[in-house]
Design brief:
The complex is a heterodimer of chains A (445) and B (443). Helix content of chain A is 74%, strand content 0%. Chain A contains 26 helices and one strand. Classes of the chains: A mainly alpha (445), B alpha/beta (443). The interface between A and B is large, with 51 and 41 residues.
């Protein structure tokens, strides 16, 4: 019994001791944090008020004679993060005078990867151009974390030298590196454009593909010819990205090259080329885009339909014509694009307003005939106008198909005038395209 | 040494071993969190919102998973800062109120969508689509989750494929934060998950209001910040489930898609295991990533019944996945995964409740019969309760340091962490055991 009581007592004492230590640690933590914040605020005040008037050396000598190094560095880094113009050089100098630059440069050669990456990030935050040669070396470091930090730092410093070094780092080829380099290229503006041209002409495949892609974001009329040349590159990736960029730049002069790219054996290039032609939006190109609706590759057809849709009225005519195409790929894709483009709704609206539209009726009839009855079915159900509904039902009366039959029966049932035709269709006519209106592709795969 | 002592020492060794593995995972998870922090992850993620290099993403979910207010769920997801994405919501049966509401709110138009059918999946009966093509609502017949996901995969237009589970609510910029590992090319990222917290937490620094939710949260933190965050460093996790997971569409297709007949979590758990298989067969380096950052919230159990139901669903999912891929067991072709991790995991999942129960029963019985002394019993209780409690406390420390959450309730928080490991886990294990036995009896 005594032992048990002793154990309980011991447990209570241990618990209380742990609790006391925990509370003490928390109090100390809060106190230290408050002190640190107070010191940081006073350093900030000194730097902001004295630095422009006294300059870095005298500020340090007179007002910050014995600073807390950790706190001072943190304050300088935060000011560096803000990147205020006119302050940058003074902060870099103050950072160096305080001995932090030397220390961090030494740490770039540390054995510990965490120390190397931390030092690189700090030098990047302060934007000290003197660190560039050593940061460039760090881009070849064996550790991903360190390379990442070097890339970040070089991107922050952002001069021509860093840009060139970052472009060299593209060898790694991952998307994240490309993203970082692209950010730096965009920030560098015009200075980066001729570097990209050079890279597109002489770089390795990864570099060329990168340059082709980024030119679409930063390039202008001068880069168009380079991108057109790149459409003949031996690498598929380069050709596809060049086509995409030409679409973004929207120069009519590149139409010829893009039309030629429609004959490229790689579907990636063809799909980007049709998209680009859609962005340029020239009426003369619509026959070729319609031709692309018959492509064996789904993405090419999808992009061709999207391109025609994007072209507005100019593209709508060829899409309608494609409904009567011999190729099933073409009419199915065209039907989807027209449905997405609210073509059916517009025709029905005309019907409601009593406007005669034989062409519109022909389109609706054809859509129903080929089994694209999704939108038609929904409209039949939603249409409040009985006259238009009856007209639509009579227009579709000669078409068999269970899906359409159901829709007509529902619509007619809802309005209370289900005709014999509708009810016969509701029972499911033969020869339709099957129950699922969304179509899956079975051919050519 | 008597046989009673040997058995008691074995029980002690079992708990010490088991929780040492938990502790190791926790330490590795902490290391992972530090790594992400050092990579400047959070600071740089927001810049991606303007990038054209971010791979576009398809988010697939069930209409039922959106909760009561589907419109606000969709609104919330579409308001995420992400360069290019689409939502594919699949529902079964006739359009209900929720579907109608979505159709009306977003002016969804029924279209005859032409898609590439690359996986075995049910046919979509209707596809409704918004004008900007960012939201598609797909009606299909009754189908298990695996089949629905395959249908979504067929319809998905983008290279990344995210799956959102029941009641999941995405955190702001969650997708943007999660996309970066897919852009890093050194080792291929197969699947990416992140930390999930209860929907009921009003304030990140306070515990949720209900006790059961608090216990479930403590246990979930241990699993997430321990096993899920740490296991990738040991070649795992063997299998896992999260309410928000991102895959590459290409990898899913290469693995043959989800198993069409699998239900609930089983489909995704099986997929994770199959992704391991595919990559190991091709001998390609890969990794699963668990982001030690809050990405989603989901409903945590509010009642004991919910908790047991959820635990049972998880165990069933794991068992199904392990059963489906059982031929990976003890195969040198799959490296340490096949030879060590999978068998150990299998044993742990199937036998841990039994072994735990037996260990307690034996130790207490032997002590009651006077076969072992109180020092041995004390050692057993220390290894089976105090040591696990330390692991629980470790998970809380990790949550506070890595996620910056739960900073408002110090002592109470650690109390819950201790209690969770002292009795909540044991009770859950025991209940699982009883439920399984009852289930077999009923069958």
């Amino acid at each position: 019994m005594g032992v048990v009581l002793f154990c309980i007592l011991l447990a209570v004492v241990v618990f209380l001791a742990v609790l006391a230590i925990y509370l003490l640690v928390r109090v100390l933590q809060i106190y230290m944090r408050a002190r640190r914040l107070e010191t940081m605020r006073s350093y900030e005040t000194i730097i902001y008020t004295a630095l422009p008037k006294l300059g870095p050396d005298r500020t340090l000598e007179n007002l910050l004679p014995d600073p807390n190094p950790g706190v001072l560095e943190e304050v300088l880094l935060r000011i560096g993060d803000e990147g205020v113009e006119g302050w940058k050089d003074k902060i870099v100098e103050l950072y160096e005078l305080s001995g932090f630059t030397g220390k961090r440069l030494r740490q770039l050669h540390s054995r510990l990867k965490s120390r190397r990456s931390d030092a690189a990030r700090r030098l990047g935050r302060i934007c000290d151009p003197k660190a560039v040669p050593e940061l460039k070396e760090l881009l070849r470091d064996g550790k991903e974390e360190v390379r990442e930090a070097a890339l970040y730092a070089l991107g922050r410093i952002g001069n021509r030298e860093t840009l060139e070094a970052m472009l060299e780092a593209l060898d790694r080829g991952d998307r994240w590196t490309q993203e970082k380099v692209a950010e730096a290229v965009e920030e560098a503006g015009d200075e980066s454009r001729h570097l990209l041209v050079e890279l597109l002409r002489n770089g390795n495949p990864v570099g060329r593909a990168f340059a082709a892609e980024v030119m679409g974001r930063v390039g202008g009329a001068e880069e168009v010819s380079c991108l057109e040349e790149a459409l003949a590159d031996e690498e598929v990736d380069v050709r596809a990205r060049a086509a995409d960029s030409l679409g973004k730049l929207r120069h009519r002069s590149s139409r010829a090259a893009l039309l030629k790219a429609l004959e490229d054996p790689a579907w990636q290039v063809r799909s980007q080329a049709v998209k680009a032609l859609g962005s340029i939006g020239e009426e003369k190109d619509t026959p070729r885009l319609v031709e692309a609706l018959r492509d064996r590759e789904w993405w090419v057809r999808n992009n061709a339909a999207a391109a025609l849709r994007e072209m507005g009225e100019v593209g709508e005519g060829p899409l309608v014509e494609a409904l009567w195409d011999e190729d099933r790929f073409a009419w199915e894709t065209a039907a989807q694009a027209l449905e997405e483009n609210s073509m059916v709704e517009r025709i029905v609206e005309d019907m409601r307003e009593g406007r005669e539209s034989p062409e519109g009726e022909r389109i609706i009839h054809r859509l129903a005939e080929i089994g694209s009855v999704g939108t038609i079915g929904q409209i039949l159900l939603d249409l409040p106008d009985e006259t238009a509904k009856a007209r639509l039902i009579s227009l579709l009366s000669d078409i068999d198909g269970p899906e359409l039959g159901k829709a007509i029966a529902k619509a007619a049932g809802g309005s209370g005038n289900a005709g014999p035709q509708a009810s016969s269709q509701a029972k499911g006519g033969k020869g339709g395209k099957g129950p699922g209106t969304p179509k899956e592709e079975e051919r050519g795969r | 040494m008597s046989p009673y002592h040997i058995l008691a020492y074995l029980a002690i060794a079992y708990y010490l071993g088991l929780y040492s593995v938990h502790m190791l995972h926790l330490a590795l998870g902490y290391q992972a969190a530090l790594r992400w922090k050092k990579l400047g992850y959070l600071e740089e993620a927001h810049r991606l919102s303007r990038s054209e290099m971010v791979p576009p993403l398809t988010l697939a979910t069930d209409l039922d998973s959106m909760g009561e207010d589907a419109v606000s769920w969709v609104d919330h997801v579409l308001s995420q800062r992400f360069p290019e994405m689409e939502i594919l919501a699949v529902f079964q049966g006739d359009p209900d109120e929720k579907a109608e509401e979505l159709i009306e709110t977003y002016f969804l138009r029924r279209v005859d969508r032409v898609y590439r059918c690359v996986l075995e999946a049910p046919h979509p009966r209707e596809v409704y689509q918004s004008d900007d093509r960012r939201l598609s609502l797909v009606r299909t017949g009754e189908a298990p989750r695996g089949a629905s996901l395959n249908l979504a995969l067929n319809l998905a237009r983008y290279p990344l494929f995210a799956v959102a589970g029941q009641g999941t609510r995405l955190e702001d910029d969650a997708l943007l934060c999660m996309v970066r590992p897919f852009m890093e090319g050194e080792v291929r990222t197969l699947a990416l998950m992140g930390v999930e917290l209860p929907l009921e937490m009003e304030d990140e620094n306070l515990l949720p209001p209900r006790r059961i939710t608090r216990f479930a949260l403590m246990e979930s933190l241990r699993v997430q910040l321990g096993y899920m965050a740490g296991a990738p460093y040991l070649g795992g996790p063997v299998t896992s489930y999260s309410s928000l997971t991102i895959y590459r569409k290409k990898d899913l297709l290469r693995a043959g898609g989800f198993k069409p007949d699998l239900q609930d979590m089983g489909a995704e758990m099986d997929m994770n295991l199959r992704l391991h298989r595919v990559m190991r067969e091709k001998k390609r380096p890969y990794r699963f990533v668990f982001l030690p950052q809050l990405v989603a919230r989901r409903p945590f159990p509010r009642r004991w019944r919910d908790h047991f139901r959820e635990t049972r669903a998880q165990r069933r999912g794991i068992s199904t996945a392990l059963h489906c891929e059982r031929d990976m067991l003890f195969r040198a072709r799959y490296g340490s995964l096949g030879l060590l991790e999978l068998p150990v995991y299998w044993l742990f999942v199937n036998l841990a409740p039994v072994v735990g129960f037996v260990a307690y029963a034996v130790s207490i019985l032997f002590f009651a019969l006077g076969k072992i002394g109180w020092p041995v019993l004390a050692a057993f209780l220390a290894s089976s309760m105090v040591y696990p409690a330390l692991v629980g406390a470790g998970a809380v420390v990790a949550a506070r340091r890595e996620l910056g959450i739960l900073k408002g309730q110090g002592v109470l928080l650690y109390g819950y962490a201790f209690m969770t490991q002292i009795w909540f886990r044991q009770l859950t294990n025991l209940a699982t055991l009883l439920i399984r036995a009852a289930g077999k009896e009923r069958a």
